[in-house]
Amino acid sequence: MHSFHYCDGRLFCEDVDVTVAAERFGTPLYLYSASTILDHYQRLDDALSSLDHSICYAVKANTNRAILRLLRDAGAGFDIVSGGELFRVINAGADPAKCTFAGVGKSHQEIEYALEQGVYSFNIESEAELDYINEIASAKNQRAPIALRVNPDVEAQTHQYISTGKSENKFGIALEWAAKVYERASKMPAISIRGVQMHIGSQITEAAPFVAAIEKIAPLVSELKIKYAIEFFSIGGGLGIAYESSIASGSGDWWTSQRSHPLTIQQYVDAILPPLTRLGLRILLEPGRLLVGNAGILLTRVRYIKETAQKKFVIIDAGMNDLIRPALYGSYHEIVPVEKITEPSPQSSPSGRGGREAAGEGKTNKIDVVGPVCESGDFFAQDREMPELRAGDLLAVMSAGAYGFVMASNYNSRPLPAEALVRGDKVALIRKRQTLAELTRDEVDASF
Ligand code: LLP
Fold first, then answer.
1. CA–CA gap between residue 291 and residue 38 (Å, rounded)
2. C-alpha dist (Å) from residue 293 to 30, 40, 127, 267
3. How far is the C-alpha of 274 from the C-alpha of 108, rounded, in Å?
4. How far does residue 200's CA lie from ligand 1's centre (Å)?
5. What does the pLDDT look like over 106-140, one tens digit per residue?
6. In angstroms, what is the span from residue 422 Cα to ligand 1's centroid?
7. Does residue 99 carry a catalytic annotation?
8. Number of domains in the chain
9. Ligand 1: which atom is nearest the Cα of residue 403?
10. Residue 221 belongs to what domain range?
11. Do 94 and 160 reside in the same domain of the chain?
12. 79 lines ligand 1 (CB under 6 A)
């Protein structure tokens, strides 16, 4: 389910007219639907009900405190990758004892902080890290709870930048070495073995790679259960979402449309349940994108239309600094007009009711949707068939709730966008737009 739909030609998020939010908070604006996030969490939780499980939201996907609080209240744990994320989770009132700490390059400071806060497990990515954590925990007279991240060497069939479960990736410890490393860990004075972890990649739209990875690691998990009485097996995150939908045509539902969602939560769970049930162990999941991806949009206004001999550019007020996914991964985001553009009718309807009429003869044209940043990689869509747009039109870049704002930067000295959250018929600002003064606030004049 997602909660973006047209009503009388205007895009709504739950019961809030998206135009109203854009006018109130300005653009570019990230707008999230609380009920979509909670619905996704609940669906996954319900589908897993036959299993002893815990959902640890991968905080990196969207770190806004209001969203962390929503998920905390729903009962989620958290998967973090830095001291900063741990700080945010604590700041949101969540329990560090429900946090797993991932990442290949944890620092001394981060490890100390996580030990002091009492995280549930350090997910360890190398022997060097294991030694380091043992040393730091010894010095503090503590025992660090750990799991090894095991690399199963499976092909996740996703973009190469977000594939993590192949032996050539920097992540995890090779399956063939894992038993030996566990043996070493078991002899370390300040380490306590708590589980096993894997994560094979992100935006995976087939069940097969998940099942293959689980089945490859399962014999090790069973062995560790007997040897070290481990408590959990974390299967990571990675379930893909729909980036194409039928919202543009106004019909259908993202989750049921074949093309737009090749793997549903139920299909995913049906596939992974049998091998997991056989293990008889607590299962942790680390979904990020699945929970928040389709729950967010980036609202932006058309600034200018520019036609060259070869191309028509629609220049918007959001740039690659606000949403870098198209520039970085060549990823697809659907872009829809907030006010539906209809073909002109003989009895012309006034703008704002039933959508606005196209300027041309209701035709679509191939356009590039680009931002104001000084790079040719600053695009949101290339050669995309879209209705006739005009300066001032409000557009929604769909499925921008995950890895959107969190990857935003100040490139070209553009202030970070604002974020707002919708619940029912209410909309609240959950992060103020950055000001120009904030751009230079932390700079210090050299004192030499
Ligand atoms: N667990 C670990 C250890 C991870 O590294 C990740 C994501 C997740 C869980 C959550 O994966 P998800 O369920 O969201 O697929 N910036 C990229 C995605 C990077 C994912 C990094 N790791 C993008 O915009 O597509």
1. 8
2. 12, 10, 34, 18
3. 40
4. 9
5. 999 999 999 999 999 999 999 999 999 999 999 99
6. 24
7. no
8. 2
9. 24
10. 34-291
11. yes
12. yes
